[in-house]
From TrEMBL:
One of its GO terms (biological process) is inflammatory response to antigenic stimulus. InterPro entries: IL-1_fam, IL-1RA/IL-36, IL1/FGF. The gene is LOC114030820. SMART domains: IL1. This is Interleukin-1. SUPFAM superfamilies: Cytokine (SSF50353). PANTHER family: INTERLEUKIN-1 FAMILY MEMBER, INTERLEUKIN-36 GAMMA. Belongs to the IL-1 family. Its main location: secreted. It comes from the Eukaryota. GO terms for cellular component: extracellular space.
Amino acid sequence: MKTGNCNSQAQEAAEQPNFRGIRDIHQQVLVLQEKTLIAVPQDVDVHPISMMSIPCRDQSLEKDKGNPIYLGIAETELCLCCEESGEQPILKLKERDIMELYRNQKAEKSFVFYRNATGNISTFESAAYPGWFICSSVEKGKPITITKDVGKNNIAFYFDPRD
């Protein structure tokens, strides 16, 4: 029989990713096509992904940016990251174990996003590229990308807990 105090039980609970549904403010859900996230209208024939999130434990990250988290796609080994391509960053899905990222005391910044929530709306800013946010297009069926032009792109998402 395992014994322990409430703190160790809470810590164990925190060591599992949270599963969440994600959709943009235009009610588009995210689907996985090969290794690309696409925003499509919600429909009975559409099977949206479940997003996994888990906190980044690196205490050296900026404190005023939001909650630093890792984001991954449930039932895959794919995690969201930002990498430079040419003169600007791009959003990619890379094969990584989200729990491996979590266990590292030092953050892999390209995989860290600052989540800011206002009510039930969240934004996700890249830790590696400050001022760049995960975004969806107002056009349906377009890939999820990253932008610094927040006025032209949608950076607001519903990040709903899944049962």
